[in-house]
Write a structure and sequence with these properties.
This protein is mostly beta strands. It is built from one helix and eight strands. Helix content is about 5%, strand content about 35%.
Length: about 190
Amino acid sequence: MIAICVVAVVGTPDEDGKWHPYKYGHNGKYIPTDEGKYIHIPNPYIHIDNPYNGGFGPYTHDYEPYVSAATEDRYRLVMTPPKDIPYYKDGYYKNNGIKIISQKHVYDEDKYDFNFETENKIRAKENAILKNPNTIDEGIASSGFYEYLGPDGFMYRVDYTADENGFRPKVKRLETPYSGKWVLEKVN
């Protein structure tokens, strides 16, 4: 029994990992020391005279002028305005309205399909089916696209799918003969 007590007392560590400021005889204040202090060691530069010729002979002056960032030409990309788009001119629709060039549609009990195109380049197409008919999960799943010619001359197209996972569009911006072009314009 005595041996167990001796081992228990001797086997306990003195340090428990906590901070005890009075354990070592000071009040917990910072005591500066020279430990870690920078000590300068003088190391003077010694010049060794070794002229460089580079194997190409002595230095010769280049007569080309130095081109700095301040003197070189700078450019930026600029979008040119679109060409005349007849569909956006004043008075185009006032007398005639917008004509439909083609239109088709098929409506059945469990599906429908349609497409159309107008004279001002608006097009749309959609195919849809009825999923899980006569159940609690009944719904329509459709896919298609619509596109139109914007006032900047670009064709904007949205391809989409709509079903039980929601509406998921993919948008594209396509160049046309009417669209403006990116050109480099000199800044300075």
